[in-house]
Amino acid sequence: MRPVIPYVTAALLFGLGVYGVLRRRNAVLVLMAVELMLNAVNLVLVTADTTVKAVLPHSGQVFALFVIVLAAAEIGVGLAIVLQLYRLRASVTVDDVPLAEPAPAVAAAPGGLPVPEAPGTEGAVR
Questions:
Q1: 28 with 94: CB under 8 angstroms?
Q2: Distances (CA, A) of 57 to 49, 54, 106
Q3: Number of other residues whose CB lies within 10 A of the CB of residue 24
Q4: Digitized pLDDT (tens) for each residue of the chain, 126 residues in all
Q5: Cβ-based neighbour number of residue 107 at 10 Å
Q6: How far apart are alpha carbons 78 and 27 in whole angstroms?
Q7: In this structure, what DSSP letter does residue 117 have?
Q8: Which residues pair with 108 in a beta bridge?
Q9: Residue 46 and residue 101: Cα distance in Å, rounded?
Q10: Rounded to 10 degrees, what is the CA torsion of 106, 107, 113, 117?
Q11: What are the backbone dihedrals phi and psi of residue 114, each rounded to the nearest 5 degrees, phi first?
Q12: 100 CB neighbour count, 10 Å cutoff
């Protein structure tokens, strides 16, 4: 068997997955692109196992099974995060996700102590 065809196919799948991760804005499509990259790795592992006679028999196929288990766990956790994001923001666009919580603005008195706000003046411009 010529291993060039599966390696080129795996490289194309991996490249398509990288493009999907870098260019997509929808979180579900980003997860699908990550799955493409993991499947490309599986193809390389199985092809290498069939073409290279290693000391351990079927070691590439065993590693491919581990990658499949990892991909299943990743999809479970990733979809749970996407569903929670949709519940909170009603959108699964990756650009809308805040990466850090904004620090609360606290006015300081000349001595460095915070100034309590008067009732009913929340958000008023001083």
A1: no
A2: 8, 6, 64
A3: 16
A4: 678 999 999 999 999 999 999 998 888 888 899 999 999 999 988 888 888 876 777 778 888 888 889 888 988 998 898 888 888 877 778 777 777 777 676 655 566 666 566 666 665 555
A5: 9
A6: 9
A7: P
A8: 114
A9: 43
A10: -90
A11: -70, 145
A12: 5
- Where would I find the H helices in the chain? 4-23, 27-51, 59-89
State the pTM of this model.
0.69
Q: Are 105 and 79 in contact (CB under 8 A)?
A: no
The length of the chain in residues reads 126
Residue closest to 18 by CA, chosen among 38, 3, 44: 38
Structure tokens at 23: 């260019």
Q: Token pair of 58, please?
A: 């079927």
Residue type, 51: T
